TrEMBL record:
GO terms for biological process: methylation. It comes from Brachyspira aalborgi. The keyword Ribonucleoprotein does not apply. The keyword Methyltransferase applies. Residues 118-236 form the DNA methylase N-4/N-6 domain. SUPFAM superfamilies: S-adenosyl-L-methionine-dependent methyltransferases. This is Methyltransferase. Keywords: Methyltransferase, Transferase. Belongs to the N(4)/N(6)-methyltransferase family. InterPro entries: DNA_methylase_N4/N6 (IPR002941), RM_Methyltransferase (IPR001091), SAM-dependent_MTases_sf (IPR029063). Pfam families: N6_N4_Mtase (PF01555).
Length: 244
């Protein structure tokens, strides 16, 4: 089974990964041996390699990532830049032409967005904007100053990420249904995506396994099934349910 969720574009999707993490088998944090990989793409790269074990181990030592410490929200920076545009009587289209359309046509507009598609200008872009818009130094320390952060890889204290693919066999059942799936499948989805006392919708109810699990986990459920014969099975399994 593949585990799909809605694209969290606007950060409004409820997804509680901690609720379905797999507990660690041991509290002992084993350190992997440092192995040199001669043909790795990370050879001789000492910064911005990411926190992957391969990146860290390729040179046999810890490395660092260069980042800015931006405290201002993206909206705050966006509003600041919009105000600078207004003061200079320049619109975004004109700014892109000044910066260079080939490089900034699909980039600069994101600096002025306040939704999830917004982004901060890079250090280099901030310098270019400052030359054109001649704004003050209010945010320069945040936008231009960079810090070295030691890269690290360690286990999450609450357990392992279960991943996106779940493999499970059909469950044994006394009911006349050819493909009763195990309760573990809806349990993962319900625990991670539906808070307690909220609603779970299963448009292909079958034998009602989703409803059984929802009821056990203190969630409400709405089940839809075109096969009328399965209604009796669902009623017998869940007990307290209204059939329409």
């Amino acid at each position: 089974m593949y585990f799909f969720t809605k694209n969290d574009w606007e950060k409004k999707v409820n997804f509680n990964l901690d609720a379905i993490r797999i507990p660690h088998k041991s509290n002992f944090k084993k350190q992997n041996p440092k192995i040199i990989i001669n043909d790795s793409k990370f050879i001789n790269e000492t910064k911005n390699k990411g926190a992957s074990p391969a990146a860290r181990l390729v040179n046999g030592c810890e490395k660092y990532t260069i980042k800015r410490n931006i405290i201002a929200s993206q909206k705050e920076i966006s509003d600041y830049l919009k105000n600078a545009l207004k003061k200079n009587n320049i619109n975004i289209a004109t700014l892109i032409k000044i910066l260079g359309e080939e490089k900034y046509k699909h980039k600069a507009s994101h600096w002025f967005r306040v939704d999830a598609g917004g982004s901060y200008p890079s250090k280099e872009d901030w310098k270019e904007l400052k030359k054109i818009l001649k704004f003050n130094d209010k945010y320069d320390n945040q936008m231009l100053k960079e810090y070295k952060y030691l890269q690290s890889v360690e286990s999450h204290p609450k357990g392992k990420n279960p991943g996106d693919l779940f493999i499970a066999n059909t469950a044994k059942s006394k009911y006349k249904h050819f493909a009763v799936f195990p309760e573990e499948i809806p349990e993962l989805a319900i625990k991670s995506c539906c808070p307690e006392n909220e609603f779970v919708l299963d448009p292909f109810a079958g034998s009602g396994t989703t409803g059984v699990v929802a009821n056990r986990l203190n969630r409400k459920c709405i089940l839809i099934e075109v096969q009328k014969d399965f209604a009796k099975i669902i009623k017998e399994r869940i007990k307290d349910i209204e059939i329409l």
